[in-house]
């Protein structure tokens, strides 16, 4: 059975968006890890960084919209589609929690372990996808999703323990086993990072919470982009999302009693350095690219893009941070890779009310077409009314 590349990536631009999405997410884990102090803490307010990221996204999306239209037109579109603004509060809150938990979890886990644990969202995304879009996955698609999850679970297997159990019949083997255990315990945390996965602590709750937020936000956002808000300009949709996200992050700062202090000269100076600014720019790019990804592809393919990040993240972290690649990590990546290959044989296609994207101008031209259709419909109705009055 051959790979259905045309179904997987309807146009060349969708493939570019896929690659860009992966590259930016790989950068996220690495940039955040690089910005940490020696004790894996942050010298800056992470919630403020997330808030400033949303502000930057809002500015970029507004600029992209105004490139082809006027600011007055933007105000008119926002007022016309204001009902969608309220709907975006749900994914905005979920993404707000997700983005803030990313800083918390990357302070605990190394980037490779972090991305592996996040792949637990795969099956949940599949279930939510079926419920919301009423598009049932095939047997092959479910097998690939389950393999993807099992690949992530392999990360939790302690292969040294099995090695020790199989070689405990001699004193030499016991000594070798003890040495291996000590080495594992010494290296289980590179630079103080948890590389063993779940350890029945608050960290497990945080990673599970982030996983759930990712699943719900991704599928619901795709629903808004392709169904409820399919006729809304994609940059207007992004503006709605980022306006709601700014409110959510401001409420978190208010709840923590840091709203005013977050923008003090001291806090802003700790953010105004290259290592933190690159995080803001990269995360802003992730948000905008994700909206195109979900509108013109789907959340199932998005989970596989996230899984592909594992291979590149593991290799880059090995060279950048000297984080070793253990056997269980290598096996997990191999199983995930096979799951991705299996999925490419029968990918999910879910365009909803959206046409395939050939170039960036199509993103706004579709909403223009809808506006013309509406104006023609209103004109036809007016003509029909005039004719009826003439007959009377």
Could you describe the 3D structure shown?
The protein has helices at residues 5-8, 12-34, 46-66, 71-80, 82-87, 89-106, 111-118, 121-133, 139-154, 159-166, 171-187, 202-228, 234-255, 265-271, 274-296, 299-321, 327-345, 361-391. Residues 170-189 and 385-390 have low confidence and may be disordered. The chain is an all-alpha fold and 392 residues long.
What does the largest sheet look like?
A: none
Topology as a string of helices (H) and strands (E)? HHHHHHHHHHHHHHHHHH
Q: Calculate the terminal CA-CA distance, rounded to whole Å.
A: 66 Å
Mean pLDDT, all residues:
78
Unreliable residue runs: 170-189, 385-390
Count of alpha and pi helical runs: 18
Shape: globular
Number of strands: 0
**What is the helical fraction, as a range of percent?**
over 70%
Question: Helices and strands: which structural class?
Answer: mainly alpha
Strand content: under 5%
Radius of gyration: 24 Å
Features:
392 residues; mainly alpha; 18 helices; 76% helix; 0% strand; disordered C terminus
Chart the SSEs and their pairings.
Elements: H1 5-8, H2 12-34, H3 46-66, H4 71-80, H5 82-87, H6 89-106, H7 111-118, H8 121-133, H9 139-154, H10 159-166, H11 171-187, H12 202-228, H13 234-255, H14 265-271, H15 274-296, H16 299-321, H17 327-345, H18 361-391
Helix pairs in contact: 2-15, 2-16, 3-13, 3-15, 6-12, 6-13, 7-16, 8-9, 8-12, 8-16, 9-17, 10-11, 12-15, 16-17
């Amino acid at each position: 059975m051959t790979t259905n590349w045309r179904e997987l990536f309807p146009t060349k631009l969708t493939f570019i968006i896929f690659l860009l999405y992966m590259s930016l997410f790989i950068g996220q884990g690495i940039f955040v890890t690089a910005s940490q102090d020696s004790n894996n803490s942050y010298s800056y307010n992470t919630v403020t960084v997330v808030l400033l990221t949303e502000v930057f996204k809002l500015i970029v999306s507004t600029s992209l919209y105004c490139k082809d239209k006027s600011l007055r037109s933007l105000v008119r579109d926002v007022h016309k589609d204001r009902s969608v603004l309220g709907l975006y509060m749900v994914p905005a809150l979920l993404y707000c929690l997700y983005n803030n938990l990313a800083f918390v979890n990357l302070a605990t886990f190394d980037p490779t372990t972090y991305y592996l644990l996040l792949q637990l969202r795969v099956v949940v995304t599949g279930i939510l996808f079926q419920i919301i879009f009423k598009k049932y996955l095939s047997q092959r698609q479910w097998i690939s999703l389950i393999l993807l999850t099992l690949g992530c679970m392999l990360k939790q297997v302690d292969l040294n323990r099995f090695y020790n159990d199989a070689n405990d019949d001699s004193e030499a083997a016991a000594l070798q086993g003890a040495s291996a255990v000590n080495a594992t315990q010494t290296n289980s945390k590179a630079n103080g990072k948890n590389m063993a996965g779940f350890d029945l602590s608050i960290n497990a709750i945080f990673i599970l919470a982030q996983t759930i937020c990712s699943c719900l936000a991704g599928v619901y956002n795709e629903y808004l982009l392709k169904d409820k808000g399919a006729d809304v300009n994609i940059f207007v949709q992004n503006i709605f999302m980022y306006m709601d996200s700014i409110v959510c992050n401001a409420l978190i700062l208010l709840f923590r009693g840091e709203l005013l202090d977050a923008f003090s000269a001291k806090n802003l100076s700790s953010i105004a350095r290259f290592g933190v600014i690159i995080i803001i720019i990269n995360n802003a790019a992730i948000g905008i690219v994700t909206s195109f990804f979900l509108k013109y592809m789907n959340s199932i393919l998005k989970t596989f893009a996230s899984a592909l990040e594992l291979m590149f993240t593991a290799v880059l972290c090995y060279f950048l941070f000297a984080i070793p690649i253990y056997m269980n990590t290598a096996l997990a990546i191999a199983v995930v890779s096979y799951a991705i290959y299996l999925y490419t044989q029968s990918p999910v296609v879910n365009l909803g009310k959206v046409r395939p994207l050939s170039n960036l101008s199509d993103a706004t031209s579709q909403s223009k077409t809808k506006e013309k259709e509406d104006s023609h419909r209103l004109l036809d109705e007016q003509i029909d009314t005039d004719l009826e009055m003439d007959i009377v």
